[in-house]
């Protein structure tokens, strides 16, 4: 028993030195560093942060993470942009496509430890939607509302960042149903749970409203570089 524990401990130290220890559900698990992960960890963003947040490992495709699916048909799509704004409006899918489109190579980071780097995402900047809705000066947060009551709250500044999108294409194709088709929010600066699939509404609010995961123990802000995993 004692020997077993010492061996576990030695393994822990070796793995921790070679890769990354991630705290999860009361225990630790390890992510061995492959070449891509090492390279991404060495790479620096313009502001000097590592491109890869701590505790993350690079993977080649989005992992299906589930969630209660909404209607993925484009014909049924309606997006409400409303709340503490002067000019609320609603878009159908054709109207979303008629707005200026951004196609960006973005990194996304899931709290379970994987990152998908540099994939191409296309959509409409949330900042452009906000410019049309005209949030009141008192608006401080944005609540993404998705099918079956899933919500995610983000700070206004995160929602208005130039990489934050209502995304409807991924890697040159329409979003897959499991990835939130026909459109999802995408806020790459925060852990991926903040990016609501099967998006139905963007509500500007004066007072914050912790969302689906935030009321279940996850961090309210969710900055991957600060490892804001749990609240
Ligand atoms: N509507 C909705 N959006 C959601 C979720 C969900 O359960 N429902 N899960 C979130 C979580 S925890 C993650 S990691 C990402 C996963 O996105 P993906 O399945 O496209 O990889 O979606 C986020 N958006
Ligand atoms: Mo997640």
TrEMBL record:
Which InterPro entries is this protein grouped with?
OxRdtase_Mopterin-bd_dom, OxRdtase_Mopterin-bd_sf, TAT_signal, TAT_signal_bac_arc
A Gene Ontology molecular-function term? oxidoreductase activity
UniProt EC number: 1.8.-.-
What enzyme class is recorded for this protein? oxidoreductase
Specify the Oxidoreductase molybdopterin-binding domain's residue ranges.
74-213
Task: Please give the start and end residues of each transmembrane region.
Answer: 12-31
Keywords assigned by UniProt, alphabetized: Membrane, Oxidoreductase, Transmembrane, Transmembrane helix
Kindly give the Pfam families that the UniProt entry links to this protein.
Oxidored_molyb
Q: Does the keyword Repressor apply?
A: no
- NCBIfam families reported for this sequence: TAT_signal_seq
Domain of life of the native organism:
Bacteria
Q: What is this protein called?
A: Sulfoxide reductase catalytic subunit YedY
